[in-house]
UniProtKB/TrEMBL annotation:
Gene3D superfamilies associated with the record: 1.10.287.130, Histidine kinase-like ATPase, C-terminal domain (3.30.565.10), PAS domain (3.30.450.20)
The encoding gene: dcuS
Ranges in a coiled coil: none
Keyword terms: ATP-binding, Cell membrane, Kinase, Membrane, Nucleotide-binding, Phosphoprotein, Transferase, Transmembrane, Transmembrane helix, Two-component regulatory system
Record keyword Phosphoprotein present: yes
Domain Histidine kinase residues, every copy: 425-528
Protein name per its UniProtKB record: histidine kinase
Uppermost EC category: transferase
Subcellular location, principal: membrane
A GO MF term: protein histidine kinase activity
Protein topology in the membrane: Multi-pass membrane protein
Regions that span the bilayer: 6-31, 174-196
SUPFAM superfamilies recorded: ATPase domain of HSP90 chaperone/DNA topoisomerase II/histidine kinase (SSF55874), PYP-like sensor domain (PAS domain) (SSF55785), Sensory domain-like (SSF103190), Sporulation response regulatory protein Spo0B (SSF55890)
Length: 533
């Protein structure tokens, strides 16, 4: 995953600023129209109210009817103009002749603008026009006497510049509010980004995503089954190996999100979650499948937030142990071989000190000839040096035990293509020979025959002993786990032997009669190195 172009803090700040700016911008657009309309309406009402107030003035009505001095109208109109801060207050008669005007020189002249016609016909209205002064909003109201007869009209003008300033003033408040909102949004975004980044331990989103992908791949790749629960005992993690074991145990369905005690009643993860303790190498039964389990709590800030268990099929662990046991048997055989030669050296040393040189010469010659014959036969027929060394060591071990282990190989056994099969052969041969050696331990004739026969990609291994033999009932149970005629805590060797043969897709045949000895025959596929295509 590529690194992000922007940091989390920058993304949050940009996003919040855009949202705030867009929201306030739309609000400003909508409210500005209303403000403009409201200001214009307010100015219209103001102008009309002033015009109405002037139109009902007895002084103005009297002047238009000739009862009072017309000059008084000029003074009254200018006074009203100054008090209300309008552009002009003009009183006119029915011919449109002005009785008042901000410019005294215009008094007595006809009203200009061209929009006074309707008011002289008795209509009240507001218009926008330009007369002698600047363009203005004009409110016209007819003047009527006490009998209801129109005797004139009054026009009140408010400069459009004044209206524009009022609208601008209203919008400025909105703009200032918008800027303050953006500033608050930026400040809040910065604070929010810092809090989120602290919660995320300073990691950026791309780093979190990459870390999550890597951890998920790791958990799915391990061979051990992994299952985890949260504080509520719900399953939050099940890797591929765990699902495979669950399927083998007959547990179907997706366990994610289920209560652990509902899916795995025999688990102790809830106990681990409550106690905070740990359990290692514990056996657990899953519908007939025995697994070895390690259980530990998940602790964050000294508080348990969940529990996790790792487990593996016990049979696989035992097979692995047996493979290691095969290597150990190989080492034991070599140790016996070395011990045998140490004894021979002691014999040679004794003959030298007693000056029995003729006897010494015969003994050394006999030993060398026997060794050369034995070594030559094994190394000539078994091309794999590890397996050859193991067989030679087993022969030495048998002699040390006072038994005879004969070896026969009808055809040469070449090296295998897959070197891992050597460990399996050591496990098979080692267990069969050891079992045969124990069977003849108390017999008068202590003889074990080992025969290897390789043909057509099939390796046959036969081990025959002169032991007590077995009944049919014993033969049916000899491969069962834990069954043994040699005491407690035994019965694993042949059980694991059968598992190895099953893994190699081979066959095992047992022939035995009480008092006549036992013969084990193993048939396994064997691909030779020189036959690889």
């Amino acid at each position: 995953m590529k690194k992000g172009r922007f940091s989390l803090q920058a993304i949050i700040i940009i996003f919040v600023c855009l949202v705030v700016a867009l929201s306030l911008g739309i609000t400003d657009l909508l409210i500005s129209k209303r403000i403009t309309s409201s200001v214009e309406e307010t100015q219209k009402e103001k102008a009309l109210n002033i015009a109405k107030m002037v139109s009902v003035s007895p002084q103005v009505i009297g002047s238009l009817e000739g009862e009072t001095n017309p000059k008084e109208v000029q003074a009254f109109a200018n006074q009203i103009k100054d008090l209300t801060h309008v552009n002009f207050v003009v009183v006119m008669d029915m011919k449109g002749i002005r009785l008042s005007h901000p410019d005294p020189g215009e008094v007595g002249r006809k009203f200009r603008g061209g929009d006074e016609g309707p008011v002289l016909q008795g209509k009240e209205y507001v218009s926008i026009s330009k007369g002698i002064l600047s363009p203005s909003m004009r409110a016209f109201t007819p003047i009527k006497n006490s009998q209801g007869k129109q005797v004139g009209a009054v026009a009140v003008g408010i400069s459009l510049e004044t209206v524009t300033k009022a609208v601008h003033k209203g919008r400025m408040g909105m703009v200032i509010g918008t800027l303050i909102g953006i500033l608050i949004g930026v400040t809040g975004a910065v604070g929010l980004a810092r809090v989120i980044k602290k919660i995320l331990l300073g990691l950026e989103p791309f780093a979190i995503a990459r870390l999550l992908e890597e951890r998920s791949s790791m958990l799915q790749s391990v061979r051990e089954g992994i299952i985890a629960i949260d504080q509520e005992g719900k399953i939050t993690l099940v890797n591929r190996a765990a699902r495979k074991l669950f399927k083998k145990a007959g547990l179907e369905g997706d366990p994610m999100g289920l209560k652990i005690e509902d899916y795995l009643p025999s688990t102790r993860l809830n106990h681990i979650l409550k106690s905070g303790g740990t359990e290692f190498d514990q056996e657990q039964d899953l519908h007939g499948v025995t697994i070895l389990v390690n259980r530990v709590p998940v602790v964050v800030n000294n508080q348990p937030v969940g529990a996790i268990a790792t487990f593996r099929d016990k049979t696989e662990v035992q097979l692995l142990a047996e493979q290691l046991t095969g290597v150990r048997n190989y080492a034991d055989a070599l140790r016996a071989h070395a011990h045998e030669y140490m004894n021979k050296l002691h014999v040679i040393l004794g003959l030298v000190r007693t000056e029995q040189y003729h006897t010494l010469a015969n003994y050394v010659s006999e030993t060398v000839n026997h060794r050369e014959t034995e070594l030559g036969f094994v190394t000539e027929n078994v091309q794999d040096p590890v397996l050859a060394g193991f067989l030679i060591g087993k022969q030495s071990f048998a002699r040390e035990s006072g038994a005879s282990l004969s070896f026969d190989c009808s055809n040469k056994l070449p090296k295998p293509v897959n070197q891992e099969i050597t460990n399996d052969l050591i496990t098979i041969i080692g267990n069969l020979v050891n079992n045969a050696m124990e069977a003849i331990a108390d017999r008068p004739i202590k003889k074990v025959d080992l025969k290897l026969d390789y043909a057509e990609d099939i390796l046959t291994i036969e081990v025959k002993d002169t032991g007590m033999g077995m009944t049919k009932a014993m033969q049916n149970k000899i491969l069962d786990k834990g069954f043994s005629t040699k005491g407690d805590n035994r019965g694993l060797g042949l059980y694991l032997l059968a598992k190895v043969i099953e893994k190699l897709e081979g066959d095992l045949i047992i022939s035995s009669k009480p008092g006549k000895g036992t013969n084990f025959a193993v048939y396994i596929p064997y691909k030779a190195e020189d036959e690889e295509s």
